[in-house]
Amino acid sequence: MSGTDDPVVLVVEDEPDVGETYELWLTGDYEVRRAASGAAALETLDEDVDVVLLDRMMPGMSGDEVLAELRERGYDARVAMVTAVDPDFDIVEMGFDDYVTKPPTRETLVETITDLLERSEHADRVREYRSLLSKRAVLETEKSEAELAESDAYARLEERIEALERELEADEDRLSSRRVRTDAYDLGEVVPVEGFASVDPGTNVLISGGRMLGKERLALELLAAGSEEEEAIAVTPDTAGSRLRDSFGSITEGLERPRVVDCTGASSKGSFDDTDDMKYVGSPGDLTGIGIGIVKCTRDVGESVGGLRLAVLSLSTLLRYSSPDRVFNFLHTVTGRVSAADYLGIATLDPSAHDPQDVNTLSSQFDVVVELREADDAGREARVVGHHESPRTWKAL
Fold first, then answer.
1. Element (H, E) at 156
2. Reduced DSSP (H G I as helix, E B as strand, rest coil) percent helix, strand, coil of the chain, to 5
3. Is residue 355 part of a domain?
4. Same domain membership, residue 256 and residue 291
5. Could you read off the pLDDT of 17-57 as tens digits, one per residue?
6. Structural domain boundaries enclosing 197
């Protein structure tokens, strides 16, 4: 955001007439900057830019290259590709937030920018909320009730948490008014935390915990909690697809087993043909192939389904085969698709196996985090972070 308080939109377009048109449409509502090439865009880009409208086909440096460099430099501006290039499977690993086909109307551009700004503000609030919850938990562990009651800093912390909870609830109300699916996703009693019996459409849930805590089993149980009208897709880099479907069958009766994207590498050791229920990818490192498998599964499901649950099992395995940046771009695309299509997204991660900064970066893509830990009695405990209706206390599983 610039000093004028108007959102800053960077228009990257090599055709002068088109760039001028976009600028005329947007000036007044936004502070508009223009760049006629990829190199000029990177020179113009700074932390004040909120949204980038990026042409994909430009001479010299392409829009794809600009996007990759933008993410490499760590800018968190929301990016919409505005291009005449029809989207293909190569978009799966690209870190953009929206895709607008030329020629757009003024209304399309304004709606796209508005949506991206709202998503950015919501993500910022979620990150701050989780950070403050963590600080509160540390203070309540280390300080006595009397010390907390006398602390002005703790009181201000509580006030900010309460304010954020109200803002997040307002975000959910606003976003839900745009949803195609209005029914919440039933979670049953899989995670027996008060208020966590369901989540809104478009929610991404991360299950976070160390080894041997049953993260994948819990993810499958969340998949199995769906109704007969819902479909489920599971991405498995560790367990063979056929075994995963058998595991799902042992959890529930009466529901179709999930469609599976098997990226264990089994297909590289033998002849495996894709079926309606199973798509094979050569390696957990082939994130583009995994994305294509997900797209094929969703296409097979169709749009008439009464909801879709998509689980990635597990992010930790993907991180063993690809860099954190590549996994982030892949995850950014997947979680964005979940939000836009009103799916329920689920993923698992072992935070103890990775750099804390990478864990925080990946976790920021999720609306809700279910944290698991070992209990004193050798059992398991869970708590839910980021779900405003759920207390943050640990609960036995």
1. helix 152-176
2. 45, 20, 35
3. yes
4. yes
5. 888 999 999 988 899 999 999 889 998 988 889 999 988 88
6. 185-396
From 198, 124, 135, select the one nearest 167 (Cα to Cα): 124
Q: What pLDDT is stored for residue 349 in this prediction? A: 96
pLDDT in tens, 247-297: 877 776 655 678 899 999 865 555 567 888 889 988 999 988 888 888 888
Domain assignment present for residue 262? The answer is yes
Q: Are residues 248 and 220 part of one domain?
A: yes
Residue 72 has φ and ψ, to the nearest 5°, of: -60, -35
User: 213-222 as b/e, with b when 16 or more CB fall inside 10 Å?
Assistant: bebbebbbbb
Residues 272 and 216 reside in one and the same domain: yes
Q: How many folded domains does the chain comprise?
A: 3
390 shares a domain with 338: yes
- Both tokens of 341, joined, read 């299509």
Structural domain contains residue 13: yes
Distance of alpha carbon 314 from alpha carbon 297, whole angstroms: 18
- Given a contact cutoff of 8 angstroms between Cβ atoms, the answer to whether 197 and 189 are in contact is yes
For residue 46, the SS3 value is coil
The C-alpha angle with vertex 73 and arms to 330 and 69, in degrees rounded to 5, equals 65
Instruction: Kindly give, in sequence order, each residue whose CB lies less than 8 Å from that of residue 259, ignoring residues fewer than 6 positions away.
Output: 231, 232, 233, 234, 276, 277, 278, 279, 297, 300, 301
Residue with tokens 């309540």: 140
Q: Residue 19: which CATH number?
A: 3.40.50.2300
**DSSP state, 67?**
H
CATH classification at residue 301: 3.40.50.300
Query: pTM of the full predicted structure?
Result: 0.63
In a domain, 16, yes or no: yes
Q: In angstroms, rounded to a whole number, what is the distance separating the alpha carbons of residues 219 and 236? A: 11
